[in-house]
Amino acid sequence: MEPTPRRRVVVAINPSASSGRGRGVGDAVVDALRAAGHDVVPLREPTVEALAAAARAQVLTLPHALVVVGGDGVVNLGVQLVVGVPVALAIVPTGTGNDMARTLGIPHDDPEAATRLLVSLLDRPPLVIDAGRVTRGDESTWFGCIVSAGFDAVVNERTNALRWPAGRRRYDLALLIELLRLRPLSYRLELDGDSREVRGTLVTVGNGRSFGGGMTVLPHARLDDGLLDVLIVERLGRLQFLRLFLKVAKGTHLADPRVHVHRVRKVVIESGDGIVAYADGERVGPLPVTVEVAPGVLHVIAPAASASA
Q1: 179 touches 298 (CB < 8 A)
Q2: How far apart are CA 122 and CA 299, in angstroms?
Q3: 3-state DSSP: the chain helix, strand, coil percent, rounded to 5?
Q4: What is the average pLDDT value for the chain, to the nearest integer?
Q5: b (16+ CB within 10 A) / e for 111-146
Q6: Is the pLDDT confidence value at 81 over 90?
Q7: Strand pairing of 185-191 and 266-270?
Q8: Residue 231's pLDDT band (boundaries 50, 70, 90)?
Q9: What average pLDDT score do residues 228-235 get?
């Protein structure tokens, strides 16, 4: 007699992540989970829209976990589906950024290691962490890691407008273009009701720590403290900003007197400069937006120490 499967697990595979690498990794994840005795429902769909619909239907059946195989886009999809639902989100990253995986302490550049970790953790209780919610007009979306509303968002918007080159090089080209076009941005912020006018370069709101593939913009952010970290970088010249940006990559920029971090439950971001907000790399829309934290609404399968690192 075969042993009773320990867990029912849905695996959502994004075949387009990292030029199709997601499909091969996804198959390996399914095989590893089945070999460990779990009841696995693999989802392989030709488009992200079809994958979202199939995953949504499966989440309604309340499996133990939804495993997403792909980059930050499919991770963001997973967050939307399991917030507030007793279904744990697990990540096997195959994208180029993988910032949510990095924040959770999941191996971000080794899918085999991430798969082994998943199998080892699946019988343990999931971690309970916060999620962020960004609202624009009548529409809201959830995020796990970062909302960008400054230079980083401008670079994302430029990246999406470019048709060449492919992959990470497109982001690098967009970064160069916008660095050459760098200008100060005007904001009106409400930080837990405290209003202030800001003329600066960067406004970033984080539940997690990094964006852009490991740039640790908010090194002290915690996923489980019921607060958001708001980074404000004052107006900088091109060379000044480039120097600071190199520090951001290492997470050593907070000592700069032109960098400020506030810890809040809710922030309203307004601007007249046509800035488009992004949440975990996904386009939200032009400002204004309201960003707030929702404590303890997300279950994740990850190492215990990483949520409070």
Answers
A1: no
A2: 12
A3: 30, 35, 35
A4: 91
A5: beebbebbbebbeeebbebbbbbbebeeeebbbbbb
A6: yes
A7: antiparallel
A8: very high
A9: 96
Total residue count of the chain as it appears in this document: 309
Instruction: Say if residue 308's pLDDT is above 50.
Output: no
Contact status, residue 301 vs residue 122, Cβ threshold 8 Å: yes
Question: Which region among 65-74, 114-123, 244-253 has the lowest average model confidence (pLDDT)?
Answer: 244-253
Task: Give phi and psi for 102, each to the nearest 5.
Answer: -60, -45
Token pair in block for residue 169:
């090089």
Distance of CA 50 to the CA centre of its chain: 21
In degrees rounded to 5, what are phi and psi of residue 254?
Answer: -70, -15
The DSSP result for 44-107, as a single string, is E-SSHHHHHHHHHHHHTT--SEEEEEESHHHHHHHHHHHTTSS-EEEEEE-SS--HHHHHHT--
In degrees and rounded to multiples of 5, residue 192 shows phi and psi of: 50, 45
At a CB cut-off of 8 Å and minimum separation 6, what does 171 contact?
155, 159, 212
Query: In angstroms, rounded to a whole number, what is the distance separating the alpha carbons of residues 111 and 98?
Result: 11
Nearest Cα neighbor of 150 from 292, 278, 293 is 278
Question: Is the pLDDT assigned to residue 167 strictly greater than 90?
Answer: no
Mean pLDDT, residues 149-173 taken together: 87
What's the pLDDT score for residue 24?
A: 87
Q: Check if the beta carbon of residue 298 is closer than 8 Å to that of residue 280.
A: no
With cut-offs at 50, 70 and 90, classify the pLDDT of residue 17: low
Contact 187/126 with Cβ under 8 angstroms? no
| pTM for the predicted model, two decimal places | 0.91
Is residue 109 a contact partner of residue 51, using CB atoms and an 8 Å limit? no
